[in-house]
Amino acid sequence: MKIKKLAIVLMLPILLTGCWDNVDLTEINIVTAMGIDKAEDGKVIVTVQVVEPAALQSTSSGQGGGGSTQPKPVFVESYKGETISDALISMKSIVDKRLFLSTIQVLILGERFCKDGINEALDFLHRDYQSEYLTDVLVAKDVTPEQILKIQSDMEAIPAMYIKGTIENTAIRAKVKRTMLINLFKDIKNKCRQVTIGQITKVNEKTVKTEGTAVFRDGKLVGWLDQYQTRGYLFATDKVKSTIVNIPVTNGKMSIEVLNSSGKLDVEFKNGEPAKLSIQVNLEGNIVEYIGKETLDSPGDIYKLEKILSQEVKKEIVMALNKAQKDYSSDIFGFGTVVHKYHPHYWEKVMDEWNDVFSKLPAEIKVDAKIRRAGLIKSPMMKDE
Amino acid sequence: MFRKIKRRLRVGSQQDNIDTIYTGIDEPLPRNIERVKERLNEIFSECSDYIQREIVCGEDGSVRILVSYIEGFVDKKILNQDVVRPILDYFSSAERQDKAKRVYQLIKECIISNNEVREVESLQQAVYKIVSGDAVLFVDGSKSALVVGVKAPQGRQVEEPDTEVSIRGPREGFVENLATNMVLIRKRIKTPNLKFEMMQLGIQTKTDVCICYIKGIANEEIVKEVRKRVKKIRGDAILDTGYIEQYITDNRLTLFPVVGNSEKCDKLVAKLLEGRVAILCDGTPYVITVPHLFIESIQTSDDYYDHAFFASFMRVLRFLALLISNLLPAMYVALVSFHHTVIPFKLIITLAASRQGIPFSPFVEAILMITAFELLREAGVRMPRPIGQALSIVGAIVLGEASVNAGIASNLMVIIVAITAICSFVVPPLIRATMLLRFAFLIAANFLGFLGISLVAVTVIIHLCRLRSFGIPYMAPLSPLTATDLKDSFIMVPIWAMITRPKILFQEDTRGTVGIKRQEVDKISED
């Protein structure tokens, strides 16, 4: 009995701890997107996009109807600080509630911020327990993150959700490299592969475009890949799930939907030194559209098309590889991983200069394309009689 | 402390007016009928329902018989037909000069045409028989009296119980009359091994209480234990099996029911056949069964009449409902007050929007709404039927629409309280335990979030695992794990695959809880 009473008394202090982090949902600002950029004076500018749930609710249920007086579902605020956390905390002097970061859907990095190097600068996001690792990261090209975050689309009430939607679309079609915060944290520390992040640009006041890829070298932004180079890069790194490849055929055009693709990287060694890079891509596709007059009846016809398709894909890969080797000298493909895995001793030596070694290596690219089906019809509808 | 109060109360009640109270001290039956009459009138003074009739017949009025009974309790028609008329006929038609002894024998063996005739030797027993509804015949000059069972059928008809409704299966429910209930059981188990051990409990009420079990199936140890505990009961009144339940329970301070009760005959019979012991009590349709285990709360008799697939699904669902009704409000409070990080993005916006403009914290809001609901429920139970509609309308408006429109509660809170309420009704035996635990979880959630909820949950689980019902671990067959008994737990196997009886009821009690508890009870009764 005495022990029981003692136990109860000893348990009581738990109640004394109170509820210090008991914060009601109405006392937080739900941040949907965050932008990080650098000012000319070297300070960090943090921009947040905060959602107003009540306004959102009234717009979605259509009760508003007031027209001009309708509250906006989100507001965007920026603040300058020495570090990200400094800016965020100082921002409390202009926003009314505590900023809640776990709901961040997209993180947009400014060009200047990236050029100065992101490796160390993103420490806060890694350290803070509120960070959501599945946040999509993008680099804004030619605009500041603030401008991007202020874009109010008609398609979605929350701009961040609109941006996220476009990334999902383009990532599936292999036009943008989708990088989440977790991938970024992994690659930042990884010398075998350089960081690449999707690119976002402003089209007009209501629209953004997520296409292309930002290429980094040692954590610093060095250049861009356009959408075709991005696709070549994604083909080589086995990231393509489905995409449409247009191929030129005699007297017409054809679109082929790639349904299956696998890419494999290899580095050939000779005398203990890397001699050649090799990329092997196998893909399968269906014909989805054909504007032309040739017949598609025989296996020979299809075989011819497969050849062209392989060439087309190979062209994109070559473009991407050239950019990476010649222009940026950055091993975004991850050939370093292969070297690290199969030639660890060599890797130890070359680790720090790998990008330079990589950019001087010749490459052999093999693409093996297969066309499986041609849809409901074989030859085109209009045929020469 | 309770013990002291109890003792004081008991002493107090016995002290007033000790002279006029019939104390029930054993006294022999006087041979003289006048003395008997005098004594009975004394005992039954101011009892307007007490009837006594004196029959004087024979040649010179030598045969004097006193018939005593309580009005309305006996069937007058049968009494006249079986007892009074035969006596009058016999002694008026034939001219007989019989000794008192002989008259008594004659009446007992030849004249009374009723099968249920017994003898009592003492006045105390005779009085007891009168007040329990028998007619008692006192014959002048005889040292014993005759008890004739002419009890009129009492109470309501056998009907379907309101509290336990089944979709499929027998609809007969127990009634207030003990004899009828015993027939209802006997009717379903046609074996002399079905035993009914009768005893009278309650100093004033002398209620018939009956321990029922099947010899050969029930664990003898448990039967012995039940007998022992029931016999220890001291109290003025036993009005319901609920009284007995409180006296015989293993742990008197637990929230969880360690004694089961039922109003359905088929359910009780099934429990007897599993080896449980039932206690019936005159005057109530509720029959209690021991040992009662946690798993029985989520079993229903319908489970066994339907396909095992559906039964298993329903049991999992019921367990889920039990968890929801305990935890849902607490989870909600923990989520919106502490753990915003685990809420999906779209949900957090919905949640925040519904919380917008609510002046109370989620905790206060939850307490308010749940209390309002409990009040509504209690009012619904206590209130006379005809006013019921008014209440449900007011309740629906206040708890639903109005509180949201007025900005006192959020939409989501209303939904949560509603779901909690629905779920709590799915497992009726645990409604009361759940009601209190819900508040405990809520308070813990408000202080420590999920950590608090887990603390309370762990405490409850430890308590459940320590709990015994007549020495049988309450959480059996889950803890301790009894593999063969899992056939009838969350997943139920079909009836044809249930080959063995529950083993757990025959398990050796390793921890000796029964022994310890008995010692305590013994001490109480010695006090």
In short:
The complex is a heterodimer of chains A (385) and B (527). In chain A, 33% of the residues lie in helices and 32% in strands. With 385 residues, chain A is α/β, with parallel strands linked by helices.
Outline of chain B: elongated
> Secondary-structure element sequence of chain A?
HHEEHEHEEHHEHHEHEEEHEEEHHHHE
Per DSSP, the total helix count of chain B is 18
What's the average pLDDT of chain A? 87
Main beta sheet of chain A: strand number and arrangement?
A: 10 strands, mixed
Please describe the structure with a list of short key phrases separated by commas or semicolons.
heterodimer, A: 385 residues, GMP Synthetase, Chain A, domain 3, 2 domains, ten-stranded mixed sheet, 33% helix, B: 527 residues, alpha+beta, 3 domains, five-stranded antiparallel sheet, 18 helices, elongated
Write up this protein.
The complex is a heterodimer of chains A (385) and B (527). Chain A has helices at residues 2-11, 13-16, 53-60, 84-90, 111-115, 123-127, 145-149, 159-172, 181-188, 227-236, 299-328, 335-342, 344-350, 354-360; strands at 28-38, 44-51, 74-81, 98-100, 106-109, 136-140, 179-180, 196-204, 207-217, 220-225, 243-249, 252-270, 273-291, 363-373. Chain A has 385 residues and is α/β, with parallel strands linked by helices. Chain A has 2 domains: 24-225, no CATH class; 234-385, GMP Synthetase, Chain A, domain 3. In chain A, strands 1, 2, 3, 4, 5, 6, 7, 8, 9 and 10 form a 10-stranded mixed β-sheet that branches. In chain A, strands 11-12-13-14 form a 4-stranded mixed β-sheet, with helices on both faces. In chain A, β9 (207-217) and β10 (220-225) form a beta hairpin. In chain A, α10 crosses α11 (299-328). The longest helix of chain A is centred in the C-terminal third of the chain and has 30 residues, at 299-328. The termini of chain A are far apart. Chain B is of the alpha+beta class and 527 residues long. Chain B folds into 3 domains: 19-148, no CATH class; 178-298, no CATH class; 305-466, no CATH class. In chain B, strands 1-2-4-5-3 form a 5-stranded antiparallel β-sheet, with helices on both faces. Chain B has a 5-stranded antiparallel β-sheet with strand order 6-7-9-10-8, sandwiched between helices. Chain B has a two-stranded antiparallel sheet with strand order 11-12. Chain B is elongated and about 105 Å long. The chains are: A alpha/beta (385), B alpha+beta (527). The A-B interface holds A 14-15, 17-19, 21-26, 28, 30, 32, 51, 53-54, 56-57, 100, 102-103, 105, 129-130, 158 and B 336-338, 340-341, 345, 348-358, 361-362, 446-449, 455.
